[in-house]
Design brief:
mainly beta, 2 domains, four-stranded antiparallel β-sheet, about 375 residues, 4 helices, elongated, 19 strands, single chain, five-stranded antiparallel β-sheet
Length: about 375
């Protein structure tokens, strides 16, 4: 085992679109979002519109008399009967959603048109949609203004400027559900190959990365390989970060496979798989995610390393998890092609200009 070969500058990446850019010698394919189906956003074909209340059918009368369809004295269940809050997949000690004040006809968390307010000219956020879609994806609150309603009363006026889920959307931002956008970023994706020569590798092992004080990758090097058994480095393969629009528990894996990134096959062999699993706690904030551990190929993968070197290979990003709103996700969400190993010694060669050490993908 005298020669080693690392695939330096393996990914062509656009950090703005979270999708890999095609380049000469580098290519990518993505499974897209079609694998994630979360059902009708309204639950009843309404595409997220709260149809449980009509201000033209005596909303204020119902509130004042307590004789609305659910009754002004109904318990907490009445507030959620037709329009529950987002489902919460929490532990037994989890905090339940706060029941709004007001009445089932006029809950004070939505400021419905025609419901009572206290001061003329006062403005407030309003939401005519379903609670589970509120401020998710493209959905945003509107604004309403308190106006006179008779000689002595005041009521909320029309809700203006709100955005409901896009009709027909079942996933992503347009559907206003969790996982409308998320990015897993991996600082270092370089593998090392070893064998009797650079052109005939018999095994693979992870690189040893170096980072600056901010956590940015500065270099990655192959571990020293002696004449004995090859072992995985004592340090992790890569730092990673995660950012999604929903808290939850996720297991993210990266798998090196031999094959064509533009035409992946179920028969493509695996060089190595490493995973990072944890709890994502704060939506829309990039969070340090567990490191990808170091790895070394098993004896069964030695032939796959040779195929990777001879015919090309790719990295596959996958996720299995569940959000705190009980939306599950289980899919391959990105595949990234590796540049030719000639880029190690000649980074200015054709097809090497867009290559880099790490990358990211979205789910």
């Amino acid at each position: 085992m005298k020669a080693r070969s690392s695939l330096v500058g393996s990914l062509a990446l656009s950090s703005l679109s979270f999708a890999l850019l095609a380049a000469s010698g580098c290519s990518s394919a993505s499974s897209g979002d079609a694998l994630l189906h979360l059902g009708d956003t309204g639950g009843d074909g309404s595409q997220g519109y709260d149809a449980s209340y009509d201000p033209n059918e005596g909303g204020l009368t119902n509130v004042d008399s307590g004789t609305g369809p659910l009754g002004a004295d109904a318990g907490a269940e009445a507030f959620w009967a037709n329009d529950p809050p987002p489902m919460m997949c929490l532990s037994e000690t989890g905090v339940m959603p706060t029941v709004p004040g007001g009445t089932p006809d006029c809950p004070d968390d939505k400021n419905r048109e025609g419901c009572p307010c206290t001061k003329e000219g006062q403005t407030a956020a309003c939401w005519p949609g379903l609670r589970k879609n509120r401020n998710r994806g493209v959905c945003v609150d509107g604004q309403t203004t308190c106006v006179k309603n008779g000689e002595f009363a005041y009521a909320w006026g029309p809700c203006e400027g709100y955005v409901l889920p896009t009709p027909g959307a079942t996933a992503g931002k347009d559907a206003c559900v969790c996982f409308s956008g998320g990015t897993w970023s991996i600082a270092n994706l370089e593998p090392c190959f070893y064998g009797t020569s650079a052109s005939a590798p018999t095994g693979g092992v992870s690189t040893i990365p170096s980072y600056d004080a901010t956590g940015k990758l500065t270099a990655a090097a192959c571990p020293s390989i002696g004449s004995g058994t090859v072992t995985a480095p004592s340090t992790p393969w890569s730092h990673t970060t995660l950012k999604t629009d929903c808290a939850g528990h996720f297991k993210l894996c990266y798998t090196l496979k031999a094959g064509d990134v533009n035409s992946p096959q179920t028969s493509d062999c695996t060089v190595a798989t490493v995973c990072a699993e944890g709890d994502y706690t704060t939506p829309n904030v990039e969070q340090k995610w567990p490191d990808l551990p170091s790895w070394v190929t098993s004896s069964a993968a030695s032939s796959c390393v040779g195929k990777f070197n001879a015919t090309g290979g790719y990295g596959e990003m996958s996720v299995v998890g569940e959000s705190v709103e009980c939306n599950g996700v289980n899919k391959v969400f990105n595949r990234v092609g590796y540049c030719s190993s000639t880029c190690n010694t000649n980074p200015s060669a054709a097809g090497c200009a867009g290559c880099s050490n790490g990358g990211s993908g979205s789910f």
